[in-house]
Write a structure and sequence with these properties.
The structure holds 2 protein chains of 2 kinds.
Chain A: H1 2-24, H2 57-92, H3 97-111, H4 114-125, H5 129-156, H6 159-166, H7 171-207, H8 219-226, H9 234-262
Chain B: H1 2-28, H2 34-39, H3 45-55, H4 61-73, H5 87-122, H6 127-141, H7 144-158, H8 173-206, H9 210-217, H10 222-260, H11 265-274, H12 278-306
Helix pairs in contact in B: 1-12, 5-6, 5-8, 5-10, 6-8, 7-8, 7-10, 8-10, 9-10, 10-11, 10-12, 11-12
The chains are: A mainly alpha, B mainly alpha.
Chain lengths: 271, 314
């Protein structure tokens, strides 16, 4: 279905562009408060309306996209950076103590309710974007470790790997030169899914006050601020929520589209 | 079967021991001494020291860890630093909200997902299927706390059918259930979307099996074969997801409890974290981990009972 790929790609590109644009230009200054203009409904001057401090919601969403994308992207990076080598090592030593140890550690991390631990980590290390990244990133590690181990295991039985072993290549070299390129598609698709889960997790953490701190705008905290005003000015709550939904929807469609394009047989974990 | 069960039981015990150690160590590195926090900044050092001794905070780490674990095994979760009440009692009060909420949401999720998944699988590739898939895409993308706010806006503020938050207790079970309805719907939405997808794809996998072809050859219509032979066989992956979802719901309720001001385990954790009531944090997190690991253990056992092949492989 190329429709998924196009729609998902367009939505994702839209948010990436908005985030990048916000570095050089936003319709209004997100730190300037204009109490006289507070809680205005969407209009030509303020497309998405204004919040309780009179700040332009469109500008806040643009800058907030930066926070969401940065947190989720780095968290995926942590998951891939640590998880893929672990998974490849486990597959190369299949059945050995290293494999067993890595997989049992994975089971353990999976057993923790991720949200509870993320809350615990941010509560102990202090709230903020960096600690939100760590909290979300830790739970990406077993996802990538398990995925790359499973995919690598089936490759290790193939003849071209056997040929590489006969040629005298070491296991780490085979993993890097032959296994990794062959599982890259799978990793890209899973990365897109984890990216979207990261956006949701970041929104959840900043909604409860454990994500990026003021004055840095974040979608989750915009929603938390809006909660008490939802009766008075529904748009204050609706706009940032829509931004989250469209961004996550875009990434999920992109992931599905990429999977269909790259290899329809790929099995992606959605946990 | 017995050997398999025993092996799983050993793994369960090891996981729990390791989990308790991790939780203890994570909470240990938390900055802020509970005793000085409780007494305030003007407290005299000897008062703080006395309180530390009373709370057992002056003991070596290893000893405190063993005391904590040993107590939990006997059902004693320690005493809250701030409320001076047994943690087990506080947890028992809060779980009367969190557990029914999770079960309510799980029920809703199953009630929505089963018909939707079967409907979509039966109409594979047609408009009805595409509609269900689009709805699940949306369901997965919507943050449940935002959906909760929209529910409040519509059903509490505009229509005034439900209250916007709070919990009246179980004195009147109907009122209690009513107060949990919006939170349960918000919590169930993403889970229902995921479960619908699993149900649909699991059914579609089954429909390619030989026994379905045999059933069709016997003269059953596509729909009859789907209902009589497909649905039952598609249940195995669906049950796994339901098992997993229960723990997600219990933990996911944390944020939803914040939205609706429900006095559940989630709010207890938040209060305890801000008050540095570490023993409460440790014990509640451990309890949630225990719930997740036990549900996984029971799912594994249920599988092995149904499918003997699983007893030999890991």
């Amino acid at each position: 279905m190329t429709r998924n790929l196009v729609l998902g790609g367009a939505l994702t590109a839209l948010f990436l562009a908005a985030a990048l644009l916000s570095y050089v230009w936003t319709p209004y200054d997100t730190e300037a408060m204009q109490i006289a203009n507070r809680l205005q409904t969407p209009s030509a001057a303020h497309w998405f309306g204004t919040d309780h401090f009179g700040r332009d919601i469109l500008s806040m969403i643009m800058v907030g996209a930066r926070t969401s994308i940065a947190v989720a992207l780095v968290a995926v990076g942590i998951g891939m950076g640590a998880g893929v080598p672990l998974g490849l090592a486990a597959a190369a030593r299949h059945g050995g103590w290293l494999d067993e140890a890595i997989m049992r550690m994975n089971d353990l991390v999976f057993a923790f309710p991720s949200l509870v631990i993320a809350i615990l980590i941010t509560a102990i290390l202090g709230p903020g974007a960096t600690n939100a990244i760590i909290a979300i990133g830790i739970f990406n590690i077993p996802v990538f470790a398990r995925l790359s181990r499973g995919a690598a295991l089936s490759l290790w039985k193939r003849e071209f790997i056997l040929a590489a072993r006969v040629a005298g290549k070491t296991a780490p070299r085979i993993s890097a030169e032959h296994i990794l390129p062959n599982i890259a598609n799978l990793l890209i698709v899973q990365g897109t899914i984890q990216f979207s889960l990261g956006i949701l997790a970041e929104a959840g953490l900043s909604y409860v006050g454990l994500g990026a701190q003021p004055p840095i705008p974040s979608w989750g905290r915009m929603l938390a601020d809006a909660q008490t005003m939802v009766a008075l000015a529904p748009h204050v709550a609706i706009m940032p929520g829509l931004a989250i939904v469209l961004m996550v929807l875009g990434l999920n469609l992109l992931g599905d589209g990429l999977r269909d394009r790259l290899d329809p047989r790929l099995r992606v974990v959605r946990a | 079967m017995l050997a398999y069960a025993l092996k799983r039981l050993v793994i369960l015990a090891l996981s729990l021991a390791l989990a308790s150690l991790v939780i203890f160590l994570v909470v240990e590195v938390a900055p802020g001494d509970p005793a000085s926090y409780m007494l305030g900044i003007n407290a005299r050092p000897d008062t703080v020291a006395a309180l530390r001794a009373e709370l057992g905070l002056d003991l070596p780490r290893a000893e405190r860890y063993l005391a904590w674990v040993g107590g939990m095994v006997q059902g004693d979760f320690g005493t809250s630093y701030t409320y001076r009440a047994p943690v087990s009692q506080m947890v028992a009060e809060r779980i009367r909200v969190s557990l029914p909420l999770a079960l309510y949401a799980l029920t809703l999720s199953v009630v929505i997902a089963f018909p939707a998944g079967i409907f979509a699988a039966a109409r594979r590739g047609r408009a009805g299927d595409a509609g269900v898939i689009a709805a699940t895409q949306l369901g997965i993308a919507i943050p449940n706390f935002w959906f909760a706010m929209l529910l409040v806006l519509l059903f509490a503020i505009k229509l005034r059918w439900f209250s916007a938050g709070g919990f009246p207790g179980w004195d009147d079970p109907l009122m209690g259930l009513k107060a949990l309805t919006l939170p349960a719907v918000a919590l169930a939405l993403p889970q229902a979307a995921i479960l619908t997808r699993v149900m649909r794809s699991s059914l579609l996998d089954i429909l390619h099996e030989d026994f379905i072809r045999t059933a069709r050859a016997k003269g059953l219509t596509r729909r009859q074969a789907l209902w009589r032979h497909g649905v039952r066989n598609a249940m195995i992956p669906v049950l796994t997801i339901i098992g997993l979802q229960f723990s997600f719901l219990l933990a996911g309720a944390i944020i939803i409890e914040q939205v609706f001001f429900l006095p559940g385990l989630g709010r207890l954790i938040f209060q305890a974290i801000t008050q540095r009531d570490l023993i409460v944090v440790e014990s509640v997190v451990m309890l949630l981990v225990f719930a997740v690991i036990s549900v996984n253990f029971l799912t594994d056992l249920a599988y092995a009972a149904v499918d003997p092949r699983l007893r030999t492989s890991r």
